[in-house]
Structures are given as C-alpha cells and as structure tokens.
Amino acid sequence: MSMIELFDEDFDAMELVEGALVLNQAINPETRVAWAEQTLVNMTYEAEAYLDDAAEPKARLDAFLQLFYQQWGFSGDHEAYFESRNAFIDQVLEHRKGIPVSLGALLLYFSSRLGFPLKPVMFPTQFLIQIDWSGEEPVYLNPFSGEYVSKHTLQAWLIGSQGPLAKLKPKHLRVSDHPTIIGRWLALLKSALMREERYTLALKCTNLALTFVPDDPYEIRDRGFIYQQLECHQIALSDYQYFIEHCPDDPAAELLKNQVNLLRTTAVTIH
C-alpha cells in the first residue's frame, strides 16, 4: 500500500503507533517494523501479567504508568530532544527515550489493550494524553514526563509560546485525529533530519508531506533548500522561485531572492 492511500483513509483505522511505523518505514526503509511489532506484543503480555485485574481502574492505570516510566524506564530525551531517533518508534523502543508524541503513541497503544480511557490531544505546544474517566472532568498527562498537568500549567505553556494574551480555549484540548498527528510527526522528523544533514531522508519527508498538501509553498521552499544541499541547483531554483511568487510578503522571500541569484550563476557555471 502506498503512503498516498494511507494518508487519505487508513491512519484513523490504525493504532497511532502502527501509523507511525508505516511513516517511519516510508522515510527510512531500515526501520525494524517486525521487531517493533513483536516487542510491543511482548510488552503487552508483560503489562497484563504485572497489573492486578481486580484493582480499581485508576489504581491499575497508576500501576501501569509506574511500569512504563519506572520499570521499563521510558523517559523524555532531555539531552537530545531534537534527534530523529526520538521519532522512530523502533529506536524509541530500543533506547527507551522519546519525545511527547512518540512516548504518547506508545501509551495509547498499551492503553487500548489494557482498557484505559486515553485519547490523543495535539496541544499547541506539545502532544498530550487526555484521560477520560466516565462522569468526571478529563485530566491531562504529559507523556514526556509521565506527570499530570493542570489547566493552570497548560495556560502557562500557552502564554510561553503565544504571548501574554493567550487564553486556554476548549479547541486547544480537542481530541486529535490520527492524520493530523501523523502530519505533525512528519514535520518533526523532517526538521530533525535536516538538522542532522541527512538530506536524502529529509527529502522523503518533504515528498510525503507534498502528497497531502500538494502546493504548500513552505514545504516547497524546504524542498528547495534540501535540493540545494544535494546540489540539484536547477530544481532548488524553481522551488525557491515558486515560494517567492506565492509568499512575496514573507521575510524569507527577500533572503531567497539572493539565493536565487547565486543559484542562477552556479547553474550557468555547471552546465
């Protein structure tokens, strides 16, 4: 099945982790999908054996979170937050380190098997887990730390990223669909790979992104940058020109005009 078909219909039908593995493999064919799937199955058995079925649901969830963060040792990668390995599920399972979205996807996977009411929320600053006990107000877990976060803290995060007038609104805490999350995951992976100068893999990210937002000038600008690094100057030139034409008022357009002039001279020299 091609990625294009997947983006259209199947991500919502899949577990988020499964969707992420499809995405990971489409970007890097060396992703160990079968190994990751088997590891997840084994860990589910381990969790089932660890948890007391008779316990009250909230106590069971607490015990599971203890297992996930303490015994299994999953944690947010503070040292190397922006490294691509934190967004590849097989590597997260191996190193036990990740970012909110990869750790959150694992929590959701186990929860769906263990019967916990967890849901994904793409909060403006990071990925969150909503826990929805029936008849109660939802509570929110930060998958990066394994700690619960209050509305007060979420408001503070929002102000930190959007400025002093930002207000926490119900839309910020809406449950997200899988295609939206996978789209954000793809953007995270692309910027990590660009930072690591792994341009061939970054190009795959951009091409995938362009399958579901075909004319996005920002995606095309990034692709131009990647092609420039790969020394495909002619394609870089037309991508930059596309961006300048469609976003003339963007501050980046002025900078790119210089690049275009440079590339024109380079392209002439090469051919």
The strand order across the widest sheet is 3-4-5-6
Please give the alpha-carbon distance between the first and last residues.
39 Å
Number of domains: 2
The count of β-strands is 6
Rounded mean pLDDT score: 92
Low-pLDDT stretches: none
Beta-strand portion reads 5-15%
**Number of helix segments?**
12
SSE arrangement, N to C? HHHHEHEHEEEEHHHHHH
In which range does the helix fraction lie? 55-70%
Query: What Rg do the Cα atoms give?
Result: 21 Å
Largest sheet at a glance? 4 strands, antiparallel
Protein name: Protein SirB1 N-terminal domain-containing protein
Organism: Vibrio ruber (strain DSM 16370 / JCM 11486 / BCRC 17186 / CECT 7878 / LMG 23124 / VR1)
Family: Belongs to the UPF0162 family.
List the helices and strands and how they pair.
Elements: H1 3-10, H2 16-27, H3 33-50, H4 57-71, E1 75-76, H5 89-95, E2 97-98, H6 100-114, E3 118-122, E4 127-131, E5 139-142, E6 147-149, H7 151-162, H8 178-195, H9 199-212, H10 217-229, H11 233-246, H12 251-270
Parallel strand pairs: 1-2
Antiparallel strand pairs: 3-4, 4-5, 5-6
Helix pairs in contact: 2-8, 8-9, 9-10, 10-11, 11-12
Describe the protein.
Helix content is 61%, strand content 8%. With 271 residues, it is an alpha+beta fold. A 4-stranded antiparallel β-sheet has the order 3-4-5-6. Helix 9 (199-212) packs antiparallel against helix 10 (217-229), helix 10 (217-229) runs antiparallel to helix 11 and helix 11 (233-246) runs antiparallel to helix 12. The protein is globular. The protein starts with a helix and ends with a helix. The model has no long low-confidence stretch (mean pLDDT 92).
